[in-house]
Design a protein that fits this description.
The complex is a heterodimer of chains A (171) and B (241). Chain A has 171 residues and is α+β, with helices and mostly antiparallel strands. Chain A has a domain of 115 residues: Sandwich (Immunoglobulin-like), CATH 2.60.40.1890. Chain A is 18% helix and 42% strand. In chain A, strands 1, 2, 3, 4, 5, 6, 7, 8, 9 and 10 form a ten-stranded mixed β-sheet that branches. In chain A, a hairpin with a 4-residue loop joins strand 4 and strand 5. The longest helix of chain A has 22 residues. Chain A starts with 5 loop residues before the first helix and ends with a helix. Chain B has an eight-stranded mixed β-sheet. In chain B, strands 7-8 form a two-stranded antiparallel sheet. The two termini of chain B are 28 Å apart. The chains are: A alpha+beta (171), B alpha+beta (241). The interface between A and B is large, with 55 and 66 residues. Strand 5 of chain A pairs antiparallel with strand 9 of chain B.
């Protein structure tokens, strides 16, 4: 009975590793998050959050989760338009990569934070807090502005910019 | 930036192919057994339907066509289907919108991103172009009739423009409407423990002119300027050459 279980050793190593990871996380600062907004939701229970996540530094980072008091559940999603033209939404269980030296843009028709089971009615002009959790940088809480449902150019940029795509084909 | 899609979802394409094959096989079988008395007889002709062009995800080419929407090689006739509008009345699409410029979009209200962004873009562009829903009908068909009842649809669409028409029905009626458009049935996926789920739907908006043909489809991501430039021309009955 004096033999040390290999599982116990593994557990101890895991704890040590997690401990180290925590130390690293404490040292890294979360990337800057700007322009966080939610279009006033047309549906009573779901909403999207868009934002620009800045350069996380040379090591990069990953947005692994988000939470807010205004919704029961928060997921990280990407809207995808398949080769057959159909649209669907994919939950990103491994998080959203925040590229070193670049950051990432959460925008209409692409990457977004989805709020489900809204517990507070979100109306244009409201502002609420959303906590984003980064793998390395830890947590950061940002103010999210609720903007008009029908705003400026709502077409999205990266994934849906067909006009741009054709611009690239010029030449 | 040359590519529009986020991912090359090979599995998804395979699955879609399998579904198409299955739908096709079932339709042929159904037509054989029931003598075509199925509720959605056009399903058998899915592959031959001009709406199948949507499955190629046609892209706009403004330099060549002068339009910011994608110009279809073969126009899609105004589809013949009947659903229920948000007042509870029967809405025969081909009959109710005959001769009227109409935008038709299939989506669902629990979709937080593409659907509201598309509808917001349409509402914003119409306002900017000085068009109201008397001049340009906007019809939203839910792909998720189980959750989208008349009340939910009406409230949802009013957030964009209370002149937008919302249509729902039984799952079979919605599938028949999609088949009338040459589209496969919507697929439910991503079920969560709380019972919520997501639904696939065509990403494009079809634009029917006064001649009851759709020659233009607008993919997601069409710019505001693109919409504003194209919509008055659609309403005026201009036909892409």
């Amino acid at each position: 009975m004096t033999r040390v279980s290999p599982w116990l050793v593994a557990l101890a190593l895991l704890v040590a590793a997690v401990g180290c990871a925590d130390d690293d996380a404490a040292e890294a600062a979360p990337p800057e998050v700007t322009g966080a907004e939610t279009p006033e939701p047309a549906a009573p229970d779901v909403a999207a959050v868009y934002a620009t996540i800045g350069d996380p530094g040379p090591d990069g980072d990953t947005l692994v989760g988000a939470s807010t008091d205004v919704a029961e559940r928060v997921e990280l999603h990407e809207s995808v338009i398949d080769d057959d033209g159909s649209a669907r939404m994919v939950e990103l269980e491994d998080g959203i990569d925040v590229a070193a030296g670049e950051g990432v843009v959460l925008e209409r028709g692409g990457l977004h934070v989805m709020l489900m089971g809204l517990e507070t009615e979100l109306a244009e002009g409201d502002r609420y807090e959303l906590t984003l959790e980064f793998e390395r940088g830890g947590e950061v809480t940002v103010d999210v502005d609720v903007v008009p449902t029908v705003g400026g150019d709502d077409g999205g940029g990266g994934h849906g910019g067909q006009d741009e795509a054709h611009g690239d084909d010029d030449g | 930036m040359g590519r529009v899609r986020a991912l090359p979802p090979r599995l998804r394409a395979l699955a879609a192919g399998a579904v198409l094959l299955t739908v096709g096989a079932l339709a042929v079988l159904g037509a054989t057994l029931a003598g075509g008395a199925d509720e959605a007889p056009s399903t058998a002709a899915l592959a031959d339907h001009p709406g199948a062009q949507l499955l190629q995800n046609p892209l706009p080419n403004p330099e060549a066509t002068g339009f910011h929407g994608a110009v279809l090689a073969e126009p899609i006739p105004r589809p013949d289907f009947a659903l229920t509008d948000t007042d509870g009345g029967r809405f025969d699409f081909a009959e109710e919108t005959a001769g009227e410029p109409t935008l038709l979009y299939v989506g669902y209200t629990s979709c937080p991103d593409i659907c509201p962004a598309h509808l917001a873009q349409i509402a914003g562009a119409m306002a900017e172009a000085g068009l109201d829903t008397d001049e340009l009908r906007v019809v939203f068909v839910t792909a998720d009739p189980a959750r989208d009842d008349a009340e939910r649809l009406e409230r949802y669409l009013a957030a964009f423009d209370d002149g937008f028409t919302g249509l729902t029905g039984s799952p079979e009626e919605v599938d028949a409407a999609l088949a009338a458009l040459g589209q496969p049935a919507a697929e439910v996926f991503g079920e969560r423990p709380d019972g919520s789920y997501e639904v696939t739907h065509p990403s494009q908006v079809l634009a029917f002119g006064p001649d009851d043909r759709a020659r233009l489809v607008f993919p997601f991501g069409t710019s505001r300027e693109g919409w504003v430039a194209d919509l008055p021309r659609l309403v005026a009955g201009e036909v892409p050459s």
